[in-house]
Amino acid sequence: MRRGPGRFPSAFISSMSADLTLNTINDFLVPLLEEDMFLVDLKIKPTNNIKIYLDADNGLPLERCIKVNRALYRKIEEAGMYPGGDFSLEVSSPGVDEPLKLLRQFKKNIGRDFLVTMPDESSKTGKLITVDDETFTIVRTEGKGKKAVTIEEVVPYKEIKQVKVLIKF
Fold first, then answer.
1. Which of 19, 78, 116, 131 yields a CA-CA distance of 20 to 30 A from 71?
2. Can you say whether residue 145 is alpha, beta or left, with left for phi > 0 and alpha for psi between -120 and 50 degrees?
3. How many CB atoms lie within 10 A of CB 90?
């Protein structure tokens, strides 16, 4: 039986390479973010399509995404990470239909209506009124007129499947 350094499985090397690439792109990205901006998600598809989802405490207009996209694209090209420019880069906000992932997203959406999906696929709706590090509180009204009852519910993050902002038209 052979001992000592062997060969790493190719899947392990590929995973290490992907992590290194994600970390490098994250390192390039962070200095480009303005004070109220934050990273929500960073993904790289096997086709070298880099998708970055940003948000900002006071909204994220398209112009700010374009500014970050252009600066980051330059940094990736200058670093020679993808020979021949074999990559694409998309920088955007997550969109209204994406679930919230970060505490900071919850905080910026206080006062908005939420749809909370539980692990058993049941759901509850309510207006987000408070947020802390481990829980958030929603309030909803059940019944009508004199029979209306306001219900406040504290929900631990660890007990939810996902949360989405409800958009009303």
1. 19
2. left
3. 12
Every domain of the chain and the residues it spans: 11-92, 103-165
Beta carbons of 48 and 86 less than 8 angstroms apart: yes
Distances (CA, A) of 8 to 12, 16, 22, 147: 6, 11, 20, 67
Which pairs with CB-CB distance under 8 Å and at least 24 residues apart come from 68-71? 68/29, 68/32, 68/33, 68/37, 71/32
Start-to-end CA distance of the chain, whole Å, equals: 69
Give the model's confidence band at 142: pLDDT under 50 very low, under 70 low, under 90 confident, else very high. confident
Q: Is the pTM of this model over 0.70?
A: yes
Domain 103-165 in CATH 2.30.30.100? The answer is yes
E-strand stretches of 45-122 = 49-56, 88-92, 113-117
* C-alpha 13: how far from chain center: 26
Provide Rg for the chain, Cα atoms: 21
